[in-house]
Design a protein that fits this description.
about 1000 residues; alpha+beta; about 45% helix
Length: about 1000
């Protein structure tokens, strides 16, 4: 490189008029916004702008009152690591003196500061410690979770290590997150920390693993991410200018800075693929060593791993005082930033890579329609009004693309008579006429080059390629007729073009069974247009139509649905215990008093006993309620990571680890064998199985035994329910609690039942199946969500558990759309704009939109936790009270919603103890809903939620005082003081 060159940083020299005296420099941005005759400050004087030339401004002195100050964007001077270490030691010493109560005096004695400064500094440190618990120093860093003023989550790393270290660390952390979430991460850094803006997620992203990366991994991430950072672009421009790789178009004249930036960006784009390009290597060295401080960063990371540097995690309702500086910088850098799409580099070419995969498939999806192709061909062949030739040059361009072409065809493609234009082009020898190319025609064929005999292979290949470039998919028969060539003569040329990946072939058009060929570029345009057309929906469905769609998609009260189909749809969903049988099976099949429903219960237990369905359990966070979920055999890797499950084993109890080890060594085992093999008591084994079941580590082939262990209070006979008997002694009665005979008999029966139940680990291959990579999991989870909901939006995803983040699933949904398997559009009004749907779901929704109705115009009663009602959170239920006010509906297994033809008709809370009924609900409809409520008392005893149903309130008033009381009494309810009661005998 030429060491004597100095890169231009966009400065204009300021010169005094009538002399060559240079007064200073100002930046290009300030000069661009200044005009001749304006006054500005420079130094301690005011100057009047007389002339603005290509590379300087000429000024004269003036005594101005309202002179403006120049502005500039100078390079930031980052604090070095050694100075930051001294600041860290100062913070530690000051913190110790604060604890001792003599910090102000120590500051005034050693820091040479006045009393006000010392008091303010101590108060600042105390506020930080009070708000964030810890004070960041050189050996103690603080990782803070917080939210900004708009409620957006942010992550702040308080690290007074200097911007040379923090900047490199911020780039590496953002690169790691982009690699995981596939989206651009916004961050900022300064001498005292790093700020990262987090995305909207159900739970904070896992940041702790990012601080467990080794120094080598951080260095690799930094090297990969630096070429896409702004600091790399700036220093690449400097180095390219020093190397004389940015030539001046006009010697001895200044090139505007914005043009230099564009030229540097063009050069960087051209040489980016050559990692050994000298300027790229020098820029990387300069960024890693001169701008940032990679060795010091690696030392800090090594200190974290060796515990010489501690990292404390805190969560605050708003940013701590020491975050004010970096937060201000983040706001300032984004305040004037224009709208842009932020995607990581690997995602920039997503659609190009996706298109390449589609074009290379043996069987290309058939999405193109004849109307779409005809519309595009009219533009390509200049038959549309706006594409016809309007002059001699446009006619020459048309002949160059379509020639050889008959003169009659040229008349169709010109806005006027082309005869004069043809004569002019022929006189100037720019086109030639070849006669006799078409049998039986004396009309000349106009072309730019002399036409060669049609038998020559090179001319034939050119003719075929140019023919396809102006058309969409065509069959071999149509191509042969247009080019006057037999099909056997076309085959070698088409095979050659296929090998060069210039054309695609297959069944490309809807309704055309014959194989077609198409220019690869034209097919890409047509395919994009077809995808865009598939996204259009005539009229989005309203809420009522969508409710009807949900009821039919989930097959509510519809005959013909198999239990396997239902379990396939709801696999992986977390249900409260017995919710599936009580709420899902009873609404999908027949009434509870029908014998077929009991057969479905038995069929479910049979699927579990045969190992086709695996039932697993767990607990909600923070010791919440237990839940169960049903999975298909071999589907474990789809919904869980075995390493995550196994990580909970060391933290389990001693009996739990003992039973786990036994099952790991011996495989599926009966409970009596587990007792004998481990030497544990029956109660200890039962307790261990319950603990492992709640960790999703074990399951059982007997569904009843599994639920028995899961729900068992784990107590001995002395704690069983007792029967009270009186024994007279000395004229006084004493109460002796003794176990009732029925309770003892039941406990003995349960013990024998458990001893014959076989238990197994859910981490086995039979349960987990083949291991899936992240991409395979994402596409299978996307298909599962589509199968479950039919029409999928992000709000439905948020209700799921155990799935990957939304970003990889969304990526696979887009891939499925481009492959023609699913549709994307705005199908339902009121939901988020990005909606994906299966083709059969779109067809069902369109049919309901034309004639909305339920199956039999009768009411349907569902739990608000039912997967067929995916409302709540960001999507309202569309339910109002008797006065028309929006009604808050809680998702709970004890709350229910009645629908009639898609309209909400009744909402019941806590197993119908509180009812909310619209004012216009007909009495006959209420009686029909009450008949559905009676089904609760017909359920088997182990499923029955209540022995009787008691309505306490209706629309906020006593049940017996409601206008609907007489209808409920007519349906079988009875008055009991101020409540309405439905007894089992009535049901």
């Amino acid at each position: 490189m030429n060491g004597g060159t100095i890169p231009d940083r966009g400065y204009y020299g300021v010169y005094l008029e009538n002399s060559n005296l240079k007064l200073g420099e100002v930046e290009e941005e300030f000069v661009f916004e200044s005009r001749v005759g304006e006054a500005f400050f420079l130094g301690n004087s005011e100057w009047l702008i007389k002339t603005i030339s290509q590379d300087r401004i000429i000024v004269g002195p003036i005594a101005a009152i309202k002179a403006k100050a120049p502005f500039w964007k100078g390079d930031i001077r980052y604090r070095d690591y050694s100075t930051s270490q001294k600041i860290g030691r100062f913070r530690r010493e000051l913190s110790e003196h604060i604890d001792q109560g003599r910090a102000p005096k120590w500051l005034m004695d050693t820091g040479l500061v006045d009393e006000n400064t010392a008091t303010n500094l101590v108060a600042y440190f105390e506020r930080q410690r009070e708000h964030g618990q810890f004070l960041p120093t050189g050996t103690q860093l603080v990782a803070e979770w917080s939210v900004d003023s708009g409620g957006e989550p942010i992550f702040i790393l308080h690290a007074p290590l200097g911007a040379r270290v923090n900047g490199a660390w911020a780039v590496a952390l953002a690169a790691a997150m982009e690699k995981h979430y596939h989206t651009r991460i916004q961050y900022s850094f300064d001498d005292d920390g790093v700020l990262i803006r987090l995305m909207e997620t159900k739970a904070p992203p896992a940041m702790a693993p990012l601080f467990q990366l080794s120094p080598g991994e951080v260095e690799e991430l930094l090297i990969q991410a630096l070429p896409q950072s702004p600091v790399f672009a700036v220093h690449f421009r400097y180095n390219a200018a020093r190397a004389l790789l940015l030539p001046r178009s006009q010697p001895r004249r200044r090139i505007p800075l914005w043009q230099q930036r564009l030229r540097a960006a063009d050069l960087l784009q051209a040489v980016r693929q050559y990692q050994d390009f000298p300027v790229i290597i020098e820029t990387l060295r300069e960024c890693l060593q001169d701008v940032f401080d990679l060795p010091s960063l690696k030392a800090v990371i090594a200190g974290l791993q060796r515990r010489r540097i501690r990292l404390h995690w805190i969560e605050t309702p708003f940013p701590s005082p020491m975050a004010a500086g970096i937060w201000f910088k983040f706001v300032a850098s984004n305040l004037y930033e224009p709208d842009q799409i932020r995607l990581p580099v690997q995602a920039d070419n997503f659609h190009s890579d996706l298109w390449a995969n589609i074009a290379n498939q043996e069987k290309i999806p058939t999405l193109l329609t004849r109307g779409l192709i005809a519309k595009a061909e009219r533009r390509w062949q200049h038959l549309e009004t706006g594409f016809k030739a309007a002059g001699v040059e446009e006619l020459f361009s048309l002949i160059e693309k379509l020639g050889p072409i008959a003169e009659a065809e040229l008349h169709r493609r010109c806005q006027g008579d082309p005869s004069a234009w043809l004569s002019e082009l022929q006189v100037t020898h720019r086109i030639v006429a070849a006669r006799g190319a078409q049998k039986g025609s004396s009309s000349p064929l106009w072309a730019v080059d002399p036409a060669l005999p049609a038998s020559q292979a090179s001319n034939q290949l050119v003719r075929i390629e140019r023919y396809l470039q102006m058309r969409g998919p065509v069959t071999l028969t149509a191509m042969g007729e247009d080019l006057h060539l037999p099909p056997e003569a076309l085959a070698p040329s088409l095979e050659h073009l296929q090998r060069q990946k210039k054309i695609v072939s297959g069944r490309l058009t809807v309704g055309v069974a014959e194989e077609q060929c198409c220019d690869r570029h034209n097919f890409m345009q047509l395919y994009r247009m077809a995808i865009a057309n598939r996204r259009t929906v005539r009229t989005p469905a309203d809420r009522v139509t969508f409710n009807c769609f949900l009821l039919q998609w989930h097959r509510i009260a519809q005959p013909g649905q198999s239990l396997r189909e239902l379990m396939e749809r709801y696999r992986g969903l977390r249900f409260p215990i017995r919710f599936l049988e009580r709420e899902v099976l009873s609404t999908r099949f027949l009434n509870p008093d029908h014998p077929a429903l009991n057969a479905k219960f038995a069929a479910l237990e049979s699927l579990i006993a045969d190992g086709e369905v695996i039932v697993q359990a767990g607990r909600a966070q923070d010791g919440g309620r237990r839940f169960v979920e049903f999975r298909r055999r071999g589907d474990g890797h789809l919904l869980a990571d075995p390493n995550t499950l196994l990580a909970a084993v060391p933290n389990s109890s001693v009996p739990g680890r003992t039973v786990f080890s036994f099952l790991q060594e011996n495989g599926a085992s009966y409970l009596r064998d587990i007792e004998m093999g481990t030497g544990l008591s029956h109660l200890d084994v039962q307790q261990a199985l319950q603990e492992l079941a709640e960790l999703s580590l074990v399951s059982c082939e007997n569904y009843a035994s599994f639920l028995l262990v899961l729900q068992s209070p784990l107590k001995g006979f002395s704690d069983l329910p007792v029967r009270v008997e009186n024994y007279p002694t000395g004229g006084q009665a004493r109460r002796h609690p003794r176990p009732g005979r029925s309770a003892i008999r039941q406990a003995v029966q349960e013990r024998f039942r458990l001893r014959d139940s076989r238990w197994f680990l859910t981490t086995s291959f039979a349960v987990m199946g083949h291991r899936l990579n992240k991409s395979e999991r994402a596409v299978r989870q996307a298909r599962l969500l589509l199968q479950r909901h039919g029409i999928l939006v992000k709000e439905w995803f948020r209700r799921e558990q155990g799935l990957l983040p939304w970003h990889p699933i969304f990526r696979e949904l887009k891939r499925l759309e481009w492959q023609g398997e699913i549709r994307r559009g705005y199908f339902v009004a009121g939901l988020s704009g990005v909606q994906f749907a299966l083709p059969e779901a779109v067809e069902l929704l369109e049919n309901l939109h034309r004639s909305p109705s339920s199956a039999d115009h009768g009411p349907i009663l569902l739990s608000t936790l039912d997967p067929a009602l995916p409302y709540g959170g960001m999507v309202d239920w569309g339910l109002t009270d008797a006065e028309g006010n929006p009604l808050k509906v809680a998702r709970s297994p004890s709350n229910h919603l009645a629908l009639v033809d898609g309209h909400p008709a009744l909402y019941g809370e806590n197993f119908f103890s509180r009812l909310f009924i619209p004012a216009d609900l007909p009495g006959e409809t209420l009686i029909s809903i009450a008949e559905l409520v009676k089904n609760w008392l017909k359920l088997p005893s182990q499923l029955k939620p209540k022995d009787r149903l008691v309505i306490q309130q209706i629309n906020g008033q006593a049940a017996v005082a409601s206008q609907y009381t007489r209808h409920l009494i007519q349906a079988g309810f009875e008055k009991d003081v101020d409540v309405l009661v439905l007894w089992p005998s009535v049901a």
